[in-house]
Amino acid sequence: MLKPVGLSMVLLVAATTLPAQSLPPDSLFDRLIGNCGLFGFDWKNRFAEFGILIGEKDAWGHGYGTDAARLILRFGFDELNLNRVWLRVYDFNPRAGRAYKKAGYVQEGIYRQALYREGAYHDIHVMSVLRDEWQAQRSG
């Protein structure tokens, strides 16, 4: 049986639940704003890493990252039978940390001063969601 080495889902903001006439012209809908996916699979231990990039700054702060993170979790747990999905978030990106917490991720630890960027060291926070935590969130 072939095992995928990486799965990627393109984040497209599509207005499938809104009537077409209610969309503002030149809105974020029907335009690529970023991408997200799972990678670094460990099939024996049933985990993968989550990554996301929303590159269009006018798309920030609208909940798209949280929604995408939740969809990827559902895919990872329901379709891929994962037990754990984890991620890394940099201390200079608190908006992402808040989005991940809303999606159900909890902090596991910190790699202190593990990234050197623009003349300064930064911490990398490790967050994850376990299958049983995710199931409890869905039923609660």
Distance between the termini: 36 Å
Total domains, how many?
1
Q: Which stretches are poorly predicted, pLDDT < 50 over at least 5 residues?
A: 1-23
The CATH homologous superfamily corresponds to: Gcn5-related N-acetyltransferase (GNAT)
Biggest sheet architecture: 6 strands, mixed
CATH-scheme architecture: 3-Layer(aba) Sandwich
User: What's the helical proportion of residues?
Assistant: 25-40%
The general outline is globular
Radius of gyration: 16 Å
Strand residues, percent: 35-45%
Instruction: Count every beta strand, where a strand is a DSSP E run of 2 or more residues.
Output: 6
CATH topology heading: Aminopeptidase
Mean pLDDT: 82
Order of helices and strands: EEEHEHEEH
What does the model show?
This protein has 140 residues and is an alpha+beta fold. It contains three helices and six strands; from the N terminus they run E-E-E-H-E-H-E-E-H. The chain has helices spanning 64-79, 94-103, 131-139, and strands at 6-13, 31-42, 47-54, 84-90, 106-117, 120-130. Strands 1-2-3-4-6-5 form a six-stranded mixed beta sheet. The longest helix has 16 residues, at 64-79. The protein starts with 5 loop residues before the first strand and ends with a helix.
